[in-house]
Specification:
Elements lengths: L1 H5 L12 H28 L2 H23 L4 H32 L5 H22 L7 H30 L3 H38 L1
Helix pairs in contact: 2-3, 2-5, 3-4, 3-6, 3-7, 4-6, 4-7, 5-6, 6-7
GO molecular function, one term: zinc ion transmembrane transporter activity
Keywords: Ion transport, Membrane, Transmembrane, Transmembrane helix, Transport, Zinc, Zinc transport
Organism: Hydrocarboniphaga effusa AP103
Length: 213
């Protein structure tokens, strides 16, 4: 049955994947792993929920890029199933960030605005570079779309972290940091909903052909 699927135009192979996309994923993977280490240490040291959220996001994106590289040689069904799993992971990330923000609000920790600002700028530059690399592939299948949404959300999140740093510096409270962390969580949940929806539509279109083709 798998042979029937891959014999049709609906089951893509590596020939349908541009080599430039694979290279872009490798670069994105390296950048995200490096920034995960930077933001993780900075977030803990600065008591910043938004930096910690961004660090977890970097790690999640690195994992997503690695998974995407593994499934490039597989058909559309496998890539759609992978995208479905990634969408669920993105949703789990959003829920984690919400709980982290709630905890920081409960203990009343005030983050270091200066550290937030410096790390936020570095992360923004890194994510803009990755977003530019992946922009061309934003309208591909569910797997490609999930990768693009991750890079887009990262850049938006970095701008939000910078705004939070300004807010923390100006008010001397943790509320700007917590508000941004919650906003990043909601953005992650929204992206997860989009990826899961597209992956389910692709599976609904292809899997009947796999079963009865």
């Amino acid at each position: 049955m798998a042979g029937n699927c891959c014999a049709s135009s609906t089951c893509s192979s590596t020939q349908a994947i541009p080599p430039s996309y694979r290279r872009a994923l490798w670069i994105a993977l390296a950048v995200n792993l490096a920034m995960f280490g930077v933001e993780l240490s900075a977030g803990w040291g600065a008591d910043s929920a938004s930096l910690m959220a961004d660090a977890v996001d970097f790690f999640g994106d690195a994992a997503n890029y690695a998974v995407s590289l593994l499934v490039l040689s597989l058909g559309l069904v496998a890539r759609a199933r992978t995208a479905l799993l990634k969408g669920l992971t993105m949703g789990g990330y959003g829920l984690y960030v919400l709980s982290q923000a709630a905890w920081n609000g409960w203990i009343g920790a005030v983050p270091h605005a200066e550290t937030m600002g410096v790390i936020g700028v570095i992360a923004l530059v890194a994510n803009l570079g990755v977003a530019v690399l992946l922009y061309t592939y934003r309208s591909g299948d569910a797997n490609m779309r999930s990768v693009w949404l991750c890079s887009r959300n990262d850049a938006i999140g970095n701008v939000a972290v910078l705004l939070a740093a300004v807010g923390v510096f100006g008010t001397g409270t943790a509320w700007p940091d917590l508000i941004v962390a919650v906003g990043m969580a909601m953005l992650g949940l929204s992206a997860a909903w989009q990826v899961i929806g597209q992956a389910r539509r692709e599976l609904a279109t292809v899997e009947p052909r796999v079963q009865f083709g």
